[in-house]
Design brief:
Elements (H helix, E strand, L loop, with lengths): L2 E3 L10 H13 L6 H7 L7 E3 L13 H12 L1 E9 L5 H17 L4 E4 L3 E8 L4 E5 L7 E4 L10 E10 L4 H17 L10 E3 L1 H13 L4 H25 L7 H11 L2 H6 L1 E4 L2 E4 L4 H27 L4 H4 L11
Antiparallel strand pairs: 1-5, 2-9, 3-8, 4-5, 4-8, 5-6, 6-7, 10-11
């Protein structure tokens, strides 16, 4: 009976999807470079969503995952196969058993698979005799075991699997430009999980965060998780823009604005304290925190204006040649 173990090295640092993607793509030679570059080119670093009560789901609830992830993978020129949905659907078992087959096929080719645990992790092996997959979450060095019959089942109502294939070369300048257009779309779209409006995206996410901190009725653990993720992603964007301005000098102003934003992060991190072994927001510093987030919101707004100006200077075939899809050039 086959037994495949790829022993991929996944580390939780950024968004769990990017952590998973980076482990898989670097192991297969489909991507080379630092993780912040992958976060930037896929547009994932720019995704910022906040639940009105700062629930921890905010960090990964940035929209319909297939629609959110595929544009970033397309921008890298990488072929991908993915399936996802709700486990309550009567057809779930059929899709689940089909996924078991193509997940094993991917592992046989030496390519890991992204999997919603939750959050996102990777399937990096299987044992046919025991009918189990081996899953990494990026936190622990030990693998979790998921039965074939339990693939996709978890305490949420969602499931997700994604595999990868070959790659075509896309010019770096085209990838950077598209990543900025993805960033514009994220910033301008207030709600990514309609019809629900309890999660704010982009510019509105700042309003949700500031309001929740001021009102004081929020999830303690979720607030810390959001702030940690926010700080890390803003450092990723800053590093990405510092590189991107070598290709597009017009991004020098955006890079400068983000360097100013990075100067705010120590104050935000200082707003988190540890009491009784748990990290939480220091409520004595809420006023200072909300002032810093309001300043950061304005800096990001100005940064996105730089992205708009650059975007408008170049044709955008993806959004203009086939307008029937309902997406047009960000302006």
């Amino acid at each position: 009976m086959p037994n495949v173990r790829l022993q991929l090295d996944m580390k939780r640092e950024a968004k769990s999807y990017i952590d998973s993607l980076y482990a898989i793509l670097t192991a297969t030679g489909l991507f080379g470079g630092p993780k912040y570059r992958l976060s930037g080119l896929t547009g994932m670093a720019f995704k910022f969503t906040v639940h009105e009560r700062l629930l921890p789901l905010s960090v990964s609830a940035y929209g319909e995952w297939i629609n959110e992830h595929r544009p970033g993978i397309d921008n890298l020129g990488i072929y991908t196969v993915l399936d996802a949905g709700r486990t309550r659907h009567p057809t779930f078992r059929h899709y689940q058993q089909d996924a078991v087959l193509w997940v094993k096929e991917s592992l046989n080719r030496g390519v890991g698979v992204i999997y919603w645990i939750p959050e996102f992790g990777i399937i990096d092996g299987y044992d046919e005799e025991d009918r189990v997959f081996f899953v990494q979450d990026g936190w622990s060095g030990e693998s979790q075991i998921v039965l074939y019959d339990n693939l996709g089942l978890n305490f949420t109502e969602f499931w997700y699997c994604q595999a990868f294939g070959g790659k075509v070369d896309i010019p770096l300048e085209a990838m950077i430009l598209e990543s900025l257009r993805l960033a514009i779309y994220d910033w301008d779209t207030p709600h990514k999980t309609l019809p629900n409006t309890d999660i704010g995206s982009g510019r509105l996410a700042y309003d949700f965060l500031i309001r929740a901190l001021k009102q004081g009725d929020y999830d303690e653990g979720g607030a810390v998780y959001i702030l940690d993720s926010y700080c890390y992603s803003r450092e990723e964007i800053c590093a990405y823009l510092q590189e991107a301005r070598a290709v597009y000098p017009e991004l020098g102003e955006a890079s400068r604005l983000y360097e100013e934003l990075i100067g705010i992060l120590p104050l935000i991190r200082d707003g988190i304290i540890e009491t009784s072994g748990a990290r939480k927001v220091d409520r004595n510093q809420v006023e200072l925190l909300t002032e810093q987030f309001a300043a950061a919101q304005q800096l990001e707004d100005r940064t996105v204006d730089v992205f708009r100006s650059l975007s408008e200077r170049y044709p955008d075939p993806r959004r203009s040649i086939i307008p029937r899809w309902g997406i047009h050039t960000p302006k």
